[in-house]
Amino acid sequence: MDCVQQTVRGRGLIPDHCQLKFVNFEIHENHFTHKTVGLSTQLVVRRGWTFQVTLIFHQPIHWSAYNFNLEVQLGDLTERFPVHFSSQCLNPLRWSARVVPENMRSHSVSLQVCPPVISAVASYHLVLHIQSQHDAMCSYGLGTFVLLCNPWCKDDPVSMPLEVQLQEYVHDDYGLVYVGTHQSVRQQPWAFGQYEPGVLEACLQLLQVSTQHQRDRQKDYLWRADPVYLCRVLCAMVNCNDDLGVLAGKWQGSYADGVCPTDWTGSAGILHQWVSSKFNPVRYGQCWVFACVLCTVLRALGIPSRVVTVFNAAHDVNANLMIEEYYSSQGQKFNLSKDSIWWVRLILHSDYFNNCITLGEGEVVKTDMPSVLVNMDSLSLELGEFGSKTVDLTLCSVHIVPLLGVGPRLEVSLDVEQTPSMGDSICLCVTISNHSSHARFLTKHLNAQLKHYNCCPRDSFWKTHRQLEILPGQVLTIHHSIPAAQYKSQMVHDDIVNVAVVIKDTKSKERVLAAQEFNICSHEISIEVEGGDRIQMKKNYTAHVSYTNHCSTALSGAVLCVEGYGLLQSKHEARLGLLQPGESIHTSVSIMTSSPGTKLLQGTFSHSHSPGVVSRSFHEISVHN
After folding, report:
1. Judging by beta carbons within 10 Å of its beta carbon (0-12, 13-18, 19+), is residue 147 exposed, middle or buried?
2. Fewest Cβ atoms closer than 10 Å to its Cβ: which of 179, 209, 270, 615?
3. What is the rounded CA–CA span in Å between residue 306 and residue 204?
4. 432-464 pLDDT, tens per residue?
5. Same domain assignment for residues 288 and 228
6. For residue 535, is it within any domain?
7. What is the pTM of this model?
8. 373-409: per-residue pLDDT in tens?
């Protein structure tokens, strides 16, 4: 269908003066009014609001001699309603249409159509029926339109009152995902891309291939008026378990037969790949990828949502309201806890969902899903020997910032002196305070290991131990430096460093644990736009992107990648065989956009020395008319 008008064909007995020549869906005006500009080239409107359709006939028509009826078709479901020639207000609770007298011409007429505020989110067919006073009838298929939820309409269950919230939870096509630890939070950009070509169509296709639709299409269409039902169906369809869902999940092992979850930077590419592969699952996703893709789908369909990160939360498998962490007597963290840690969730912001929950300490909230939200402490338990799995309950320390070990008259803390960047040494400080009235002879074990965000620690990459004496009332401060060479070769993706110190009194056998977790920061990528960060639509601009090697060694196989949904048609890569210390890799790209708002230009840098470690930076660009 042309964006402006289309030629129509009718059926039935059609008098010459009733022959419809064109239908104009007034896409530009309707999209602007319904806040759907950029979502699609076909007509996209929101429920509860009127949209305009102009009918152009071959010859002048005597309007009072005919009855006009519209019919909306959704699968086998249809509803026919009259077109009233009056200025009376339309009823937002049912399908209705009118012609305002001033919109009548001899050859044309403009219809105002109002979908009910509670109606299915789907692609509809619109049919026009013209009936004479002698019961002669002719019908025209006018075309299709997409109907979305309407968070701007107060009667829609997804309504939101504040425009600033609507801008973020519906309009914004990019956002930040917070990663790392609660002590060392990092942010990385994600392009939701709901305005990218084909994304809305992919979201609608998700509903069409869902298990619910395949099982009972008519029932599914009826239920699609309910945003809670929509969210449940779409949440299930984002993963490929038991259906034709979008993403296959994988949390360990090789990702050679797909894409590593940390390499994704946006939802559009994932949805496009899913559609082009005839609904085969895209490999691979993890929690934040699932959440971000679902956020894209919901925003595209008009349901306000955003992605949030929850640190130190878990699936409490053994239902004891504790997250157990197991350490050896040498400070090595074990992968023994059954409480799998998860990070990222999707929050639906509407009173209708009632999903914004604040938890007090120890409070438990049951939801309508098979899960429980709990505000829990983290319990650190020390194991005497790994093989025996004997738990020494004399050591129980609550997770605070930093994790501080306190025993009878003995206090231990472990601090990272400065958050290191890739290639820097890790500088640690152990502080031991003896509050007793006698000297103590201690054994100090300090251990460092890498772990994934879901609390799966790996083998230690560095450890040390020593004997020491501490006098009554004395405070010992001990500094350690871990060279970058100890961790660089083992870093994978966005690994977290876990360091722990165990202090043992050799006489009393008392042991105290202190631990810290932090990220290794990546070096910044420089992104600059000629003329500044405020650009005009449909004009070409040049952006310069560069990365400087701050490491003390040369980096082989350097790759600098630039991408930007709505700014670049595809990824742009620059390669350099060997990047010497202090040397930079540069590239320039031409950017242009056809839609206003804030866009995101992203740069990523990788090299063959540590292929799993990627530096990422992003740059906001404001687009105006």
Report:
1. buried
2. 209
3. 20
4. 999 999 999 999 999 999 988 766 788 999 999
5. yes
6. yes
7. 0.84
8. 344 344 444 443 333 333 332 232 322 223 345 556 8
